Amino acid sequence: MKKVLVIEDDPEIVNLLEIHLKDLNCEVLKAYDGNTGVDKALSHDPDLIILDLSLPEKDGLNVCREVRAHQGTPIIMLTAKSEEIDRVLGLEMGADDYITKPFSIREFIARVKAIFRRTKMIEDRITSPESKTFRFDELTIDIEKRKVIVRNDKVELSPKEFELLTLMAAHPGRSYSRSDLLKLIWGYDFDGYEHTVNSHINRLRAKIEPDMNNPKYIKTTWGIGYKFNEEVTI
Question: Domains in the chain, please, with CATH?
Answer without folding.
Answer: 2-126 (3.40.50.2300), 132-228 (1.10.10.10)
